[in-house]
User: Fold this.
Amino acid sequence: MILDIIAILLIVAGLVFFLGAAVGLVRFPDFYSRMHAAGKGDTLSNLLVVLGFAIHELRHFDGSADVIVFCKLLAICAFIMLTSPTATHALMDAGYEDGIEPVIGEDGENALAADRKKP
Amino acid sequence: MKWLGLIATAFTGILLLSATPYFPSFGDPNSPANAGVNGGVSVSQYYITETYTDTKVPNIVTAVLADYRGYDTMFETVVIFAAGVAIFAILRSFGGTTIPSHPTAIDTSVEGDHQRIIIGMTCKLIIPVIQLFALYVVAHGHHSPGGGFQGGVILGASFILMALAKELDTALARFSEKRYLALACVGIFIYSGFGLLCVALERNFLDYGILHRLMPATDEIMARSHSMLGVEVGVAFTVTAIMFAIYANLSSKGRLEQGF
Assistant:
């Protein structure tokens, strides 16, 4: 019961971050901030959702089979932690080397505000 | 010439699509595959009830793929091999024109080095795990989803990741052209070799049961199971080699050198 609640909370939190990442991906003005939203949001929300699944797997704890799936899901978590930020970094790096300019407003104000000022 | 290809493709496509209405609909209980022909046992029924007693393989898909329909799978492997050879034949260019140097292609500045460290370190951590997992997928095809094709693709992808993260040369130093071409041939050779061994022992091509004479401490049933593993390894060899061959040739325009 308590594990169910924890699992549901984790998965819902993950979905909220997913939504944030998706909104950021659409709404942010330039390549770098979009990648920022996608990279951060994806990593954390994937992690939370998979952790929720792992805990959900333990709810009827009655043998080794559940623990194996739990460990596999934890391994997936570890690999997401490792690979997802690196993939974002590699994409950012490729964009930077390709000469993509970030959107910067006048006298260094933030990009989103500069975007809003546009007619 | 392109128009000719388009016409041929369109003609074949229309021909194939026009045949689809005559197929039994999905899940139709009266289709020959589900109901059997003339009241006999249907194929699906037979696979579901008899696979385990026939081969001691719990994963029916693997048993159907590598044993009951081994002939089909052998030529699927050959198709992949042919695709790789076609890529090789079309793209690979040997020497000829001198290669212009691209000073910008390889970033040797401190900043560039610094950025490569992150990707390089992650790949160093992750590639052994990927390769181990690929071997697990190949070897565990009997018991869980997986097998030669999937494992081979994962193993090939690990080399592609190495080429992406470092230089193509780094991957080629570990998996040279000579090696991957040899490995692709060896894979086909293993598969058809299993078939020919059965013929040599006076059975049908790819009728693995008889191979228990060559395998110590097995009966006909376990011989089928073990031969499936052997065949899957052959498939994995070919798929690994061809995956990497296709990437290496496509990414370097057939020159197998960095900077294109």
Summary: The mean pLDDT of chain B is 86.
